[in-house]
Structure formats: C-alpha cells, structure tokens
Specification:
Number of strands: 0
Mean pLDDT: 93
Radius of gyration: 17 Å
Distance between the termini: 25 Å
Strand content: under 5%
Structural class: mainly alpha
Number of helices: 2
C-alpha cells in the first residue's frame, strides 16, 4: 500500500473522464453524469478501505480493545 493506490485512483479518474467526455459528445449528459458518479463511488470505496485499515493499525499500535 504505497504509491500504487495513487496510481489506481489517477487511472480511474483518467478513465472516467475520457468515458464521460465521449458520452457527452454523443448528447447523453444524463448517462455521463451517472458514469462520473460511479467513478466517484469506486474511488470513495478505495479510500474508505484505506481509512479503515488506518484505524485498525492505530488500534493495534495503542492496544485499544
């Protein structure tokens, strides 16, 4: 869990941006918005998992619970 997560998030962002732009060019703004929202949810799940691991590590370091 180092810099690879940053590359994953960047790759997802670039991919979602390209897909959204292609869909917007075909006059499907509603679907483009949904695609952007799905990309945001994917990135948020990655970040939430990392935050969960952080709290577990802090809990283990300080011997809580």
């Amino acid at each position: 869990m180092g810099i690879d997560i940053i590359f994953k998030i960047a790759a997802i962002g670039i991919l979602i941006t390209v897909i959204t732009q292609v869909i917007k060019k075909s006059d499907r703004d509603d679907i483009a918005t949904l695609v952007a929202l799905v990309g945001l949810i994917i990135v948020l799940t990655l970040v939430i998992n990392m935050i969960s691991e952080l709290f577990e590590t802090i809990k283990n370091i300080f011997n809580l619970y």
